[in-house]
Amino acid sequence: MKTKNFFIKMLSLVIALVIVASVAPLSAFAADQDEALADGHALVLTSEHLSVTRRRTIQMTASVTNVETQPKITWSSSDERIATVDENGKVRGIEPGRAIIFATAVVDGETLSGEFAITVVKRNSFLKNFLEKRQVLSYKYSYVDDYYYTNDKAAWQHNFGFGKVYDFFSPYILLEYDYIRIFFTYDDKDWMLQMWKGQYGMVFYGGEIGIYNRPHSDKGVSFWTMFACPEEEDWLKMEMTLWHQKLDGRWNREFTRDYDYYWWCTGFKNGHLRQEEPADELRLTGRITFKDDEMAKLVADGFAECGFKSGISKDGLGLDEIYVDGSDIYFCWQNISEAESTMAIKVGAGFLAALPLLPLLPIILPFVGAFSMLISLVNLIL
Predict the structure, then answer these.
(1) What is the pTM of this model?
(2) Cβ contact 322:331 at 8 Å
(3) Burial of 62 (0-12, 13-18, 19+ CB in 10 A)
(4) What is the pLDDT of residue 305?
(5) Which architecture characterizes domain 29-123 according to CATH?
(6) In terms of Cα–Cα distance, which of 234, 236, 257, 253 is closest to 245?
(7) In what helix (H) or strand (E) does residue 164 lie, and over which residues does it extend?
(8) CA-based angle 232:207:376, to the nearest 5?
(9) Domain ranges of the chain
């Protein structure tokens, strides 16, 4: 028992040090609205929180750009059964749900308006609140669909690359996922497209899509070959939806990452899969838009080499099928995997196997789901 307590205390200390070293303040969240013209007016809503706990309050602020004196602001809620707002912008959570907070003001005879979406939750959460104000290893939390994701537009992991070696070590740090890799050469660069889905740590499951490249080389891809995270001009537009099969056989949509430019598109949900190897109770669907038809064809050939079949339409894809539409590839991935089954170390039992590799964790974690491991340990200790 003393040995166990000592181990837990040491883990707590390591986690605390990682968090202190990793967090960075975030600017206040702003409402999704058009930027104000330099010589015009706009009503801007801000809040330090995206959510409010039931029976608690948060303060929202509103200001008009390009005025010498701020006008009177009028506040309202789209659904006062969910959340109310007083004349000073203080929002109170009533019942769990989602409400839009509106603000209006009149400037020079013009009525300006703005809005801000607020989610009311049943209970306070240290982790969710922490991620609203801080970034832990560049991970954030979304109250829409209740999942965690990487802020890949500003992730410090972009300074590093990815290679086969990280997937080799992943089972030792409690990551049990399926993956596929597609290698191709385009525009005098070697590229790797990789997709993952499975168990990340002890309390998270999810999926990822990553695109990486390097200057073209005649040498083949080895165990130690590293691909760089691409510069912004090589990011690709993509969207991704994770589906989870329930015990009654229904497929439940867990979250959707919106169609946007990414080099690393991710999402992680609280929960534990019934089986980690293979993760065939998870399904990943989506679309990737490549730079042109030539690039899309190269990737489509790579999908075929992995075992994917061609679907008859983008809306009627079967399991492990793709559909090519010009520079777009639509996919439905479930059963195909290149993961080495002999390397699988089941969640829980993997803790003992992880001990000899603790000195490598600072190097490995950023590339293969650092946040999920960190949060798993935090949940155990808290």
Answers:
(1) 0.64
(2) yes
(3) buried
(4) 96
(5) Sandwich (2.60)
(6) 253
(7) helix 164-169
(8) 110
(9) 29-123, 135-381
